[in-house]
Design brief:
87 residues, alpha+beta, 4 strands, globular
Length: 87
């Protein structure tokens, strides 16, 4: 059986979280890519914070998620954005 990059996250979310429930997302992106990260959270409140040198922006968003798989889908989408790091 082939293992995916999010198998460990799926297992931890399934073991420790109750769904639906709140989940806190944190990402760091290059300044010119933050719009792509913001699009993942369209319609939800989030906080942006630029780095000291202005080259990076962090995004924090707490959302009520329906399932662990919904959380993983956000992370999978974020990995397709060049330069984005999940915290």
């Amino acid at each position: 059986m082939k293992r995916g990059p999010f198998d460990t996250l799926r297992a931890k979310l399934a073991a420790f979280e109750q769904w639906p429930g709140p989940y806190l997302f944190k990402f760091i992106a290059p300044k010119d890519r933050i719009g792509e990260v913001e699009a993942l959270f369209e319609g939800h409140e989030y906080r942006l914070r630029p780095s000291r040198n202005g080259r990076w922006v962090s995004l924090t968003c707490e959302r009520v998620m329906a399932s662990s798989e919904a959380v993983v889908e956000i992370y999978e989408s974020a990995t397709r954005i060049e330069g984005v790091m999940a915290l």
